[in-house]
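Field guide to reading this record: the first block holds the primary sequence, the second block holds the structure written as discrete tokens, and the final block holds curator observations. Each block starts with its own label. This record concerns Dynamin-related protein 5A, catalogued under organism Zea mays.

BLOCK 1 — SEQUENCE
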Amino acid sequence: MVKSLASPPHRLVLFLQQSSVEWCSSIWLDTLKEIDPTFRRTIIVISKFDNRLKEFTERWEVDTFLSASGYLGDNIHPFFVALPKDHGTISNEEFRRQICQVDIDVLRHLRENVKGGFNEEKYVSCIGFSCLKKYLESELQKRYKEAAPATLALLEQRCTEVSMNLTRLDSKLQAASDVSQLRRSAMLHAASICTNLNALLDGAADPAPEIWGKTTEEEQIHSGIGSWPGINMPVKPANSSLKLYGGAAFERVMHEFRCATYSLECPQVSREKVLFSLQRCTHTIYWENCLYTYVARLRTYYLLMLEDAEAVG
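BLOCK 2 — STRUCTURE
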């Protein structure tokens, strides 16, 4: 979660670590290097710096610790801060005053209690909460100014898009008052639906079948029927596990219907019923043939009579 929050390149990373942790044993420092290898957008803050002051007696000890030599690079300078010990029951104004006092006490200790002091020209701007606050404010202001042109261009693009959408919506509202235009739009919409439906029935891969298609089991669930009536065993047509729609799904349902039909058991029928049905069919065909023969004979008879009448005349 920490990596996902700190990975976007437009975000500043505030890396906080206690002064009691040595640079060589800092676990999160390796993670920070993965997120921001050059520390271009990282601000490193070492807290509880006052607890570490009593360990420094020589100038080189202070300068070595402040430089974090070998771990952050020559151009990366962390901030070293300390806060008041008791701030539970005081006002905000008093707390801010105490913070300033702690910064003054830390600098006084480095100047007076460390032999040779420290490299003030290089590190004095990195010691104290007030220096950290000043740097954060200036850094944020600088980054806001740098991002202003791109932000303005993005806002202008968004305004242009919104204006175009409003113009299009106004034209649609005006067209809605024209009956002929509404009729034309309805006909075009219906034609588009028919075209898309024909394309789906013929077979299409857009939209994606794996997203919008259904398996045989899903189709049965959505139909509300479940299983086929009169069939106790499951019916599994070909490609039953694939997500299909349109013509492919229709062909699969037809194949499923055939499979279900073949799974039905035929009822027991007596020989008498079978013979009776066959006799009825035979008698029907016999009388139809007789009728066709009679009609053909009548037609021939009348044709002969017409020929005789023409010969006499």
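BLOCK 3 — OBSERVATIONS
The radius of gyration is 46 Å.
DSSP finds eleven helices and three strands in the chain.
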